[in-house]
Amino acid sequence: MACPGASPRNDFSTWRCYRCPVRNAYISKWYLHLRWFSFAGQLAVLWLATYFGLTLPLSTILLILTVIPVTNILAYRFIHSFSRSTSLGLILTLDTLILTAVLGQAGGPSNPFTIVYLLHLVLAAVMLTPSWTWFIAVLSSISFASLFIISRPVPEWEMHGAHHGFSLHLHGMLFAYMTVSFLAAYFLNKILKELRDKESRLNRLKAIEENQKRLAALATITAGAAHELGSPLGTIAVVAAEMERRITASGNDHVLQEDIKLLKSEVQRCKEVLRELAERTGDRTGEPLQVLSISELLEAATQPLITRAEFDLSGVKDERVRVPPKALLAAIKNILANAVESYEGMRGIVRVATVTSERQMLLEISDEGCGIAESALERIGEPFFSTKDPGRGLGLGIYLARLTLEQIGGSLNISSIPGRGTSVKMVILRDCLKGQLAA
């Protein structure tokens, strides 16, 4: 099940989902449960310390530890008021300060539980952003260093080092912790980033594979429909031709002759529609590549829509590209048709511009129409999803355009502001053959 509210822009990663309230609450509550176990564990350690005769200020330490259950109760109440990153970051910060206060009352740097600082750092690296990880690393290092100043000595541990806990050994522990914490923060962030990137690439490949399967199924259905409809249309065409021949031979009923001619033309039109539909849903990236002008391609794409909108092509540079013409033309037509329809029946202006580099071309198609809502923008490109009224489209235009561009080494990106318009950026390789060889 997809995570509701997850951002598609940000990548396909499932490691972090900052916008999903359900997932945020789940992870935060998981950590709050962990804090209850931590509270119980610290009470158990405190009991063992007193059992073995350590001289500790029990009342002060217990008072400090009660902050954990109190803040846990408050956190359950206000967990939805903050984002996941902020809530967990604040709780980890508080836990680091609580640990410092407890250690300060229990021997300071000579207490072996100073290693718990590293646990907070690892939790921050796994669950939070790199900035929070570095913040916890710096905070824990400063807190460790402060124990040399504010700590209350435990007589039983004084033999651990000389000069009231300021031995070279303890200072070495501080230096070792600071070194390990910074290295851990750096390498953990690197490792997690690589894992997220790898997962993102795998998800993208799976999405492309799934799209290919959907397209193959759609092409099969369309080919079957074209085949089934082709036979009756052929029969109608033969019968209409025979009727026209007989009526022409008899020289009677000129009105009926005109009707038969209309019938034949409509049959031919139906055949053309079926042929075009089969081409639009088929994989045409295997068609021969041709070198042609991008201006010629745009002229052919805008010609059927010239009566419904004005096209500003002043930003188009007349560059030549080597592409599969029919496939790319169909993709551009789909984007232009959506831009025209965004004006909801009014005659608007669709602007087209290009930015070229040595290897690729950016073709931007923008309008000032109704725009797309954010919730719908996240689903744009899904097969059979459409923002139009029922009956006005199948929701395949953007899907097929994106799939075509991906198959020839390009990409498609859509940005929109409701009520202000939409911008579609199509990245096209100037020589698709080189892209296919590189792949």
Q: Count every helix, treating DSSP H or I runs of 4 or more residues as helices.
A: 13
Structural class: alpha+beta
Cross-sheet strand order for the largest sheet: 2-4-5-7-6
Please tell me the total number of domains: 3
Termini distance? Answer: 32 Å
Computed Rg: 34 Å
DSSP helix fraction: 55-70%
Give the beta-strand count: 7
**Principal-axis shape:** elongated
Residue fraction in strands: 5-15%
The pLDDT mean sits at 76
Please write the string of helix (H) and strand (E) elements: HHHHHHHHEHEEHEEHHEEH
Low-confidence stretches: 1-27, 160-166
Largest sheet: 5 strands, mixed
What is the subunit organization of this protein?
Answer: single chain
Question: What does the model show?
Answer:
There is one protein chain. The chain is of the alpha+beta class and 439 residues long. Helix content is 60%, strand content 10%. The protein is built from 13 helices and seven strands. The strands form two sheets. It has a five-stranded mixed β-sheet. It has a two-stranded antiparallel sheet with strand order 1-3. It is elongated. The N terminus is likely disordered.
